[in-house]
Amino acid sequence: MMKFSQRSYTQEFLDRDDIPFNDIKRNMQELDVINTWLGGHGITLSGIKELLQTQKLEKVIICEIGCGGGDNLCAINKWCEKNNVAAFFIGIDINAHCISYARERNPSISCEWITSDYAKVMFDQKPHIIFSSLFCHHFSEEQLQKMFQWMHANSSLGFFINDLHRNRLAYYSIKILTAIFSRSYLVKNDAPLSVLRGFSKSELNTILSDASIHKHSIKWKWAFRWLIIVKR
């Protein structure tokens, strides 16, 4: 009987260093479809909107860590253009192939694409907002404490996290859906495993507390996501 009371620490295929980039590319393309149809991009936009309520800016600087192919930044850029919000973006990913793909795929976005471990990036000007989407579940609790501290220290308005709720229904639903519709072995393996590596609300509260971040909100969003917002 599979247990959902504790996080899994089984490594996802995507975290290995021997996966061909063409396979990673298909994985990113399918995740973009999943984020579009299951509301993931909408949750990210909710985080942007809430943090922008705190202050009116001439131009907002938005940074994503673990940006992959840039589909989240593309969705935000479309919203900004539609709502007359001037924005500059920063996309950070440790995988140089992902950054090249993101740059090629999003030529019209005003964005600096950075190949680096996020923790090694030094900003000339702090981004107003830093966020991650489906990134945190790849890390241990100790690593997340440092990540949250870095995001807090390097954002001027605040940061937010869009990540997975570990839930039995979420696990079996995504397992069935990807088995039927996915053409990516990465998605078939990693999507259900990602749910098992996801979080309960109490776990997120503990990680934030251990990172000395006490003022935050954690909201449950469909489909089985958490939106964590920390305002400066």
Automatic annotation (TrEMBL):
UniProt-recorded Gene Ontology molecular function terms: methyltransferase activity
Taxonomy, superkingdom: Bacteria
Domain (Methyltransferase) ranges: 62-152
Keywords: Methyltransferase, Transferase
GO biological process: methylation
Matches recorded under SUPFAM superfamilies: S-adenosyl-L-methionine-dependent methyltransferases
Signal peptide span: none
CDD domains referenced in this protein's UniProt entry, alphabetically: AdoMet_MTases
Protein name listed in UniProt: Methyltransferase domain-containing protein
Source species of the chain: Pinibacter soli
